[in-house]
Amino acid sequence: MVDLFIVGAGPAGANLARLAGERHQVLLLDQRDLRGENPLNRKTKCCGGLLAPDAQKILGEMGLGIPRDVLVDPQLFAVRTLDVSSGEEALYQRHYYNLDREKFDRWLVSLLPPSVKTCFNAVYLSHEAIPGGFIVRYRQKGELKEVKTRLLIGADGAFSKVRRTLALPQNPSSYVCIQEEYPAEDLPPYFTAIFDLAVTDFYGWIIPKDNHLLLGLAVPQGKDPWEAMEKLRSRLALKGIFLQKKIRTEGAHLLRPQKNSQFSPGKDGVLLVGEASGAISPSSAEGISYALRTSLLLAKALEEGIPGVLSRYAKSLFPLRRNLLGKRLKSPFMYQPRLRKAVMASGLLAMKPFHSPLLWPCPR
Ligand SMILES: Cc1cc2nc3c(=O)[nH]c(=O)nc-3n(C[C@H](O)[C@H](O)[C@H](O)COP(=O)(O)OP(=O)(O)OC[C@H]3O[C@@H](n4cnc5c(N)ncnc54)[C@H](O)[C@@H]3O)c2cc1C
After folding, report:
1. This protein's superkingdom (predicted)?
2. For ligand 1, atom 4: residue with the closest CA
């Protein structure tokens, strides 16, 4: 019997296990090979790996700093916004840390106290309520296993199986992302955000990573992501951006919440943190800060013990709900074509680029 069975060792699950692991008996499970125990397991988290200021702030609050080894080149100071439909372009100041996402997650796992039991290369299958807790079933190395737990935590991301078992009345819209990696010698020194209604009602992106580029795209579930990606590439080619010799493609689900009621702290002894709870920015899809924040708040709620934890956690989420509302209010200015065009054309909050129109590769 453990106190907390955490499904998912992304930033939400690993951070919760780290913070709650000294006080409670914790089992942290993930299908990924987060400690290098099984070289045959190549599952990774598909992510842009940009650490936004909010995430940096929470790391600071928790007394953590990121090791250099987790960073990749170059560090970025600007986002280039490309509205393909209207032809508008703008450059905005941003302060991201550019990360190797897999290394970031492994670093968080490396901070776990020895008291936390980990179970990697293992897949959560189901759970069943029993008096005082749950029986959780999972598969590891082909074997079916069971563990009893007092609380079950769903930290299993956008496609959360734990959340689906709760049959919540409202769920955020689901998007499918594709991310392609290309070799590149001249790296654009910014994160490029691409808006094009002919491709998606969300956005695409280009992010430099060491000597590679990531081209990513999020499309609503139900739309063919491959067709949309091909269209994006051809639209970029028209803008003079050619990406060739693809090295690899990865994919993932992504949530885009539309209402506060789609965000849930959990139900009936099952708690949700990170993207599984529906906590992610609906305007930028930035999710690492929300994963860290929700797990920090749940760890605080657990400090007073297990009884009543759901209501303490739910109560502490009020500022985060307000924050999500703020991001939703910002969304029309980014995604409503006329409003976006007007904002970009006005130059409001934009930087004045030295080279105009922006050039890539940048002249040295
Ligand atoms: C393409 C893409 C790009 C993104 N770029 C950024 C970015 O640049 N910056 C940013 O801040 N956010 C970004 N996000 C959002 C961000 O990645 C997520 O919001 C964040 O990772 C959520 O953290 P989490 O811990 O809640 O879930 P996750 O990081 O998704 O972790 C969930 C974990 O659960 C495990 N898991 C899931 N199901 C099971 C199961 N059945 N059994 C065992 N293990 C399971 C997974 O292996 C995973 O390790 C991006 C998302 C996508 C899809």
Report:
1. Bacteria
2. 47
